[in-house]
Known about the structure:
CATH architecture: Beta Barrel
Signal peptide: 1-18
Order of helices and strands: HEEEEEEEEE
Protein name: Outer membrane protein beta-barrel domain-containing protein
Distance between the termini: 41 Å
Number of strands: 9
Strand content: over 45%
Structural class: mainly beta
Keywords: Signal
Number of domains: 1
Number of helices: 1
Strand order of the largest sheet: 1-2-3-4-5-6-7-8-9
Amino acid sequence: MKKINLVLMLLISSAAFSQFSVASSPAETNKWTFGGGIGVGFGSNSYFNLQVAPRVGYKVTNDLEAGLVGSVSWQSSNSYKSTMFGFGPFVNYYFARSFFVSGNLQHFFVNYEDKFYDFKNNQQETALYLGGGYMQQIGNNSFMQIGLMYNVLYKENNSIFSSGLIPSVGFVVGL
Length: 175
């Protein structure tokens, strides 16, 4: 049950996750992109979740971006607390300036502590998220992204996550 709560709040945080990239020059002489996101969740039993996910990328072409992404998530409630760290490479391909496909390989480290039973557990899991979605231009170089990602390495009985499917909502600047 605690795994389900952990993953449910991660999914909610992912939905609230805002992602942005910044290119330094309007003439696109700088191909580096920087960005990240933040998610916050609240719930019953004094549940609180904070997620931070920085990223750095490089525009290989105008439509192809590759880079590294990290994530840190802190969760606590009356009955447990956990910390999750994740990092890995990502690649995004943008087409028709309205759609994108994405791949993201992350390795996660989870520290979990049950406050009632004095139980502690450390786990690791690798996730390969593949997906895509729709982009709506909201400014000169700014886009809002709405999409779905699926962890193709997800195994129901042997995962720290309760589902392989993750919705995503974000913003990208500098494409």
